[in-house]
Amino acid sequence: MTAVKTTETAAPAGDIPPALPPAVTGGARKRRRRGGAFDRALPYLLIAPALIAILWLIGFPVVSVFVTSFRRLNLGELVRGQIVWTGLDNYATVLQDERFWTVSLRTVVFTVAVVGVSVGSGLLIALLMRKLSGWVRVALQVTMLCAWAMPILASATVYIWMFDQNYGILNKTLVQLGFEQFNGHSWFGSGASTLAVVGLLIVWQAIPFLAFSLYAGVLGVPRDLYEAAGIDGATGWQTFRAVTWPEIKSLLMMVTFLSTLWDFKVFAQIWVFKEGGPSGESTTLAVLQYLEGIAKSHFGVAAAISVLMMIILGLITFQYLRRLLQTEEGKI
Fold first, then answer.
1. Cα(300)–Cα(306) distance, integer angstroms
2. How far apart are CA 319 and CA 303, in angstroms?
3. Which of the residues in the chain have pLDDT under 70?
């Protein structure tokens, strides 16, 4: 009987690592999970201080104005530190005042006129800069930069002297040209003419930003499209409508929206010229808010006017965002 001897070849002990205890592997997985969650939360933790600071600097004044609009906060309450809640009385006072509706309508008409002229002029200058030669374009750009860099009060003072009734260069020039009716003509004798001069100043200050912004958009239009339009025999207007307009439409919408926000609440230029006069005929909502809050110390009423202005601007912002989302860029 033959005995069969079986031999088992065992692998060296170093080739197979010893099994780790379950506690060790479980702890490693927990550490990995904790590390992954921390890595995902790290960007938010890093941006949190800046976000909190921005919300505090922007959100706190808005909340404060909103709360103040429900209080009777005149000079007496402010000195005594007294808090008197009046509910919607401030809003009722504002909305029942006929002057508020007159001023609101005037503000809307003024804003539409100024924004339309400034955006249209900026677009025309942007298209013009594309056609000008190098040195002429540089001279125009430097001129616009100088106008843009001029402080508001300084430029308003220059305009006041230009349109002065007795010493203004405009009246003197018109008289020299044969228009004798402008001898001693008062450009600030009515609210309409005062707002016209103020609007001219605002347009002059706004054109550089609008022209440079739209010029950047025009430069972004591929030249091949213009060449193709020229080969097809398109006129200048047809080229603008078929090539330039679709490319700069979103940019034009954005600068129009920004101009509307800025011009709707303009204050310094109107106040420097006639302080809302004569007889309050050039008063806008921003000036009315100042008159109620600072001049009359009716801070609650002024806060209510501010909230109503924010509501109007919020509606404008909503319309802008709705139109933006309808475009192809907004959908992307």
1. 10
2. 24
3. 1-35, 327-332
Beta-carbon count within 10 A of 39 CB: 9
Work out whether the CA dihedral 64, 70, 72, 74 comes out positive or negative: positive
pLDDT for the residue 15: 52
Structure token digits, residue 237: 């207007």
Are 270 and 287 in contact, with CB atoms under 8 Å apart? yes
Paired with 101 in beta bridges are none
Q: Determine the pLDDT at residue 195.
A: 92
- Is the CB of residue 103 less than 8 Å from the CB of residue 283? yes
Q: Which of 114, 136, 125 minimizes the C-alpha distance to 215?
A: 125
pLDDT of residue 1: 42
Q: Which two tokens stand for residue 184?
A: 């001693």
Tokens of 27: 């702890």
Single-letter amino acid code for the residue at 98: E
| pTM recorded for the entire structure | 0.79
pLDDT digits (tens, 9 = 90+) for 162-197: 998 888 899 999 999 888 888 888 888 888 999 999
Number of Cβ within a 10 Å radius of residue 50: 9
Q: Under a CB-based contact definition with an 8 Å cutoff, are residues 156 and 269 in contact?
A: yes
Rounded distance between C-alpha atoms, residue 173 and residue 306, angstroms: 42
| Residue 259 CA, distance from chain mean position | 7
Q: CB of 276 within 8 A of CB of 283?
A: yes
**DSSP letters along 26-43, please?**
HHHHHHHHHHHHHHHHHH
